[in-house]
Amino acid sequence: MNTFSKKNEILFKIFDRLENQSWPDSSLYVVATPIGNLADMNLRAWEALMRADFIAVENMRVSRILLDFWGIKTPLIIANKHNEATVAELICNYLQKRNRLALISDAGAPGISDPGGRIVSLVRKFGYRVIPIPGANSVVTALMGSGITTDKNPSYAFAGFIPKRYSEKISWLRFWCNFSIPIVMFETPKRLIHSLEDLLLICGQSRLLTIARELTKCFEHISSLKLGDIQEWVHKEKNQQRGEFVLILHPIEHNIQQKYPEKFDFKIDSLLNILLEEMSIPNAVKIAIKLTGLSHKDLYAQALMCKNHNNIRNYKET
């Protein structure tokens, strides 16, 4: 039997199994989709989308690329973070009429750092069945490529997207960076460099970080490095900062968690200069107190000196 015939035989078995599975109506099929490589959609997900009467999508243009690739012509409805509550009611009305509905996001699993959670919750609340169909996942994919988890120590925490607002980001990073397990975070290309600098500021130069980008795509790349080597990495990879980034912060080496580190790998004036570029002296001092545990009096005096020094330097440069 040649290779082509063997593939046809296997496909026949797969489609026969899919055909004979239960595909109940009045059900919401929550379907994971590829995170980059269109070929990563599994056949059960494809069958669910083909059988659905309607598919709720996060972005019609993005989803249409995937659906056209797989020959799926099912009618679409928009379900994003702006209309999730309204669409949830619409979906329940469709389910009441014994329709099958499918829910997908732009990439990956709906409801995991993507819209969909409210829809699933309301559908379940009204007593309709929710059928999750697993698939590609950027968190698991990045962990698989990092080698940071093992069968004996599989623990990790998924923190989601790093906050946009600076003050909120600093508090958020301080919270997550103090765990003794790997922490998985998402970041966008536009904010990546600043977030890497903030991680260095908070965690110190010796903390390890895995950076994964373009997962499952042609230019997939996974790097593990010390935060102290971030500037070298940024300079080397400056033309590759595109797509969504998955960051895995390696765990702290000691088991005893501390509210504040005993020793910082940066100077106080360097910290204050970075903060003063983004905010006023009072706000910079508040954040510096949280990061260092030093007194308000000492930090405020140092911040004034930094501000005056920067003003003099800027005046000379002009």
Q: What is the name of the CATH architecture of the largest domain?
A: 3-Layer(aba) Sandwich
**Backbone CA Rg:** 25 Å
Secondary structure class reads alpha/beta
Largest sheet: 5 strands, parallel
Helix-strand pattern, N to C? HEHEHEHEHEHEHEHEEHEHHH
Cα separation of the termini: 79 Å
Mean pLDDT: 87
CATH class of the largest domain: Alpha Beta
What is the fold named in CATH at topology level of the largest domain? Cobalt-precorrin-4 Transmethylase, domain 1
Describe how the helices and strands are arranged.
Layout: H1 3-20, E1 27-31, H2 43-51, E2 54-57, H3 60-69, E3 76-78, H4 84-96, E4 100-103, H5 117-125, E5 129-133, H6 138-146, E6 157-161, H7 166-176, E7 183-187, H8 189-203, E8 208-213, E9 221-226, H9 230-236, E10 245-249, H10 268-276, H11 281-292, H12 296-317
Parallel strand pairs: 1-4, 1-5, 2-3, 2-4, 6-7
Antiparallel strand pairs: 7-10, 8-9, 8-10
Helix pairs in contact: 4-5, 7-11, 10-11, 10-12, 11-12
